[in-house]
Amino acid sequence: MKKPNAVFFILFIFVCSLNTKATAIKTVLSTANTFIESLNTDQQKAAVISYTKENATKWTNLPCGLQCRVGVLLGSLTDTQLGYAKEVVKAAMGTLPSRGYDQAMQILAADGFLGTNRSGYSSGNYIIAFLGKPSATGKWQLQLGGHHLAVNLTFDNGKVIGASPLFIGLEPKTFTANGVTYAPLKANHDSLVAMIAALNSEQLQSAKLSAAFGDVSVGPGADGKFPAVKAGLKVGTLSKQQKAMVIEAIKVWAQIADDATAKKLIATYSSEIDSTYLAYSGNPKLINKADYVRIDGPSVWIEFICQPGAVFPAEVHYHTVYRDHIRDYGDSFSFSN
């Protein structure tokens, strides 16, 4: 019996890859249509709006509900509608534990926990919005957002062309709900701490920034405002093992997107790793107020900072943003510094 040749295997893997991607977008579209069809007329008008720069960039980390966002509030939905909404974002986001969809749901749960200590916080104050009608041929954007979360996934011709900007915050760093303890940003925090800890004293000195930070610098309302000159330590000067740790840190943010998109983004960022810079300010262990770490590549941009606690002032809480110099909003809009 003849053994299948290598060309057959390559074709088989290629076809399977195409089928997997086709199935993924079909699931996103079918869940989106099911959700939209479950809404009444007024809800549909709020949830499905024009794909414009103004709407796309209208996100923030503040707990201000629809006063500062577009879309429909999760808290205004029936249990059935809410279930449909979650199926949409589950289909569109990463599947790993404490990444993608799971991480987003933990962030919402954290706001529910905050709401037990202070009014104004709730997972119901988060929104879901479609900028443009979900389609396998047109360009449109899916938003999931609220206090401490802004997910922006841009689709075009049946594929994701942008998984950023992404804002994630967290207070408190860990919390317990229904007997389960959550720490949704632990992997984000720990990957950066390990990355910096692997540097020797000379490398640490090169990576240290003279400036102090009060928040992420390219957060909400700062689209396109990346520093004109990269600062810190060039990753191309590091050892193979140190470079691998930088890539591992980048993965934690990129995996907000569906698994196939995340894999493609990580491959791009890995290919650019030698031209990427890492930097920090304050304590690189990220334990004190104003401690800050940044990764800045030709494409990828990641910031993480410890801020004073708002509800729990004795603790720090986290703010972090993931952007892409090229692919924010699927490169649909231009921004000037």
Task: Describe this protein with a few key phrases.
337 residues; alpha+beta; 2 domains; 12-stranded mixed beta sheet; two-stranded antiparallel sheet; 9 helices; 14 strands; globular
Briefly say what this structure is.
With 337 residues, the chain is α+β, with helices and mostly antiparallel strands. It has helices at 6-38, 41-47, 53-56, 79-92, 100-115, 186-197, 201-207, 240-254, 259-271; strands at 48-49, 72-73, 127-131, 139-146, 149-156, 159-162, 166-170, 175-177, 180-182, 233-234, 277-281, 292-296, 300-308, 316-324. The chain is 36% helix and 21% strand.
According to DSSP, the number of beta strands is 14
Helix content: 25-40%
Q: Which percent range describes the beta-strand content?
A: 15-25%
Query: Which class do the helix and strand fractions yield?
Result: alpha+beta
Shape: globular
Order of helices and strands: HHEHEHHEEEEEEEHHEHHEEEE
Number of domains: 2
Helix count equals 9
First-residue to last-residue Cα separation = 65 Å
Describe the model.
With 337 residues, the protein is α+β, with helices and mostly antiparallel strands. It folds into two domains: 6-180, no CATH class; 183-330, no CATH class. The chain has nine helices and 14 strands. It has helices at 6-38, 41-47, 53-56, 79-92, 100-115, 186-197, 201-207, 240-254, 259-271; strands at residues 48-49, 72-73, 127-131, 139-146, 149-156, 159-162, 166-170, 175-177, 180-182, 233-234, 277-281, 292-296, 300-308, 316-324. The strands form two sheets. Strands 1, 2, 3, 4, 5, 6, 7, 10, 11, 12, 13 and 14 form a twelve-stranded mixed sheet that branches. Strands 8-9 form a two-stranded antiparallel sheet. Helix 1 (6-38) packs antiparallel against helix 4 (79-92), helix 6 (186-197) packs antiparallel against helix 8 and helix 8 (240-254) packs antiparallel against helix 9 (259-271). The termini are far apart. The model is unreliable at 7-19 (pLDDT under 50).
